[in-house]
Amino acid sequence: MTPAWRHLLRAWHLQTSSPRITKMCPSLSRGAFRTSVTKLGLHTKPRMPPCDFTPEKYQSLAYERVLEIQNHHLTPTRTAYFRKPLLLHQGHMEWLFDYEGNRYLDFFSGIVTVSVGHCHPKVNAVAQKQLGRLWHTSALFFHPPIHEFAEKLSALLPEPLKVIFLVNSGSEANDLAMLMARAHSNSTDIISLRGSYHGCSPYTLGLTSVGPYRMELPSGLGCQSTMCPDVFRGPWGGNHCRDSPVQTTRKCSCAPDCCQAKDQYIEQFKDTLNTSVAKSIAGFFAEPIQGVNGVVQYPKGFLREAFELVRERGGVCIADEVQTGFGRLGSHFWGFQTHGILPDIVTMAKGIGNGFPMAAVVTTPEIAKSLAKRVFHFNTFGGNPMACAIGSAVLEVIKEEKLQENCQEVGTYMLQKFAELRDEFEIVGDVRGKGLMIGIEMVKDKVSSQPLPQEEVNEIHEDCKSMGLLIGRGGIFAQKTLPV
């Protein structure tokens, strides 16, 4: 482990000892979280804040038996983040507990999914009540939870985005959105950005443009990728490009109202339209902020111009809000609103159910009718009573506890403090994001901006876990840490 990282961990702990951070984690008290600078050394383990919750005693399978079952009966793909895989037993709000009773502050949120806290009491109560009333029935029958949820969700979306299709995962949602776009446009070609992640199903694999998720098999018929307008790693970018409290350290000569990087990336987008797809296209998929690719933000105005170009070709514009939706970005409830755009289709999952399998596609009446004319769409579990009751409770908690406002205040504070660490430490190449969707890109040095070696990133993960902090990672180099 590099000395620079040890110093950074120490500084990170001191920066996050502010009372503002306690707003993100309600059970944290200012006095307990603050540690004296004079007492904290490079090898001092930071003290965990207090927690008034006591987890149940673990009484399930022995750890060795869990490993054996994992190796023989579960997916052989790489799933363990740590040298010793973490066996989690229970969760409470911002905390997770392992089988030995160790407590962790969850900055990963189950890949940006636990939107109101693990086992939130209101969501739990609603789930238990619905569990005793009705679990499942066919979508061919009416039941109050689906109509109550549809009314709540539609009220949060602008006109004409008012028709809701309920499914079970982000991949399913994007599958359906692809079908809608093609049915409505009578065209085939769909464009997505390089570095995008829109799912791992056979259909959505064509949209996903992150190498490890691709296979040596034909997939994605009619899907084309175009250059990602990444203002940190891309060929163009400057220190005024992002809609974020923190900008890149790259310099530019742009006027405040004119972004040359945006113009250059739009030219690349036009080139894709002119060379790689048919004259008429089905649509364009974009995440408001790329999640799996490492919280990549585009130049301001890029998506607005890209949407205009797509519509000129007869295509529909799809906003993938699987990670960015439900107030996470702070300033707005939906990520597309931060770009000043109105999509034709919006897909959402993850935070919609706080971890319960649930997703949705929201579109216009016109596009919904186009699909209905072409195919009878049916989903056995989509919109089931349990999911809809939980979804309604999640929306109520976000509003009642002002979690969107909390994302704005706490996220802005954290971004600014992380930017101070970037300015101080050579291995922090970039800090980016909005609200509580934050990425920190680690590099060998600021001059080369070469990614920090994988083994050193692994050590960062191990060190954070040993201190009781769980973070994520992503990006095309699979080495960015995502404190979300």
Your description of this structure?
The structure is a single chain. α7 (144-154) packs parallel to α12 (385-400). The model is unreliable at 17-42 and 479-484 (pLDDT under 50). The longest helix has 22 residues, at 403-424. The chain contains 14 helices and 15 strands. It folds into 2 domains: 1-79, no CATH class; 127-400, Aspartate Aminotransferase, domain 2 (3-Layer(aba) Sandwich). The chain has a 7-stranded mixed beta sheet with strand order 4-10-9-8-7-5-6, with helices on both faces. Strands 1-2-3-13 form a 4-stranded mixed beta sheet. Strands 11-12 form a two-stranded antiparallel ribbon. It is an alpha/beta fold and 484 residues long. It is 33% helix and 13% strand. It is found in: Mitochondrion. Belongs to the class-III pyridoxal-phosphate-dependent aminotransferase family. Its cofactor is pyridoxal 5'-phosphate. Homotetramer. Keywords: Acetylation, Aminotransferase, Mitochondrion, Pyridoxal phosphate, Transferase, Transit peptide.
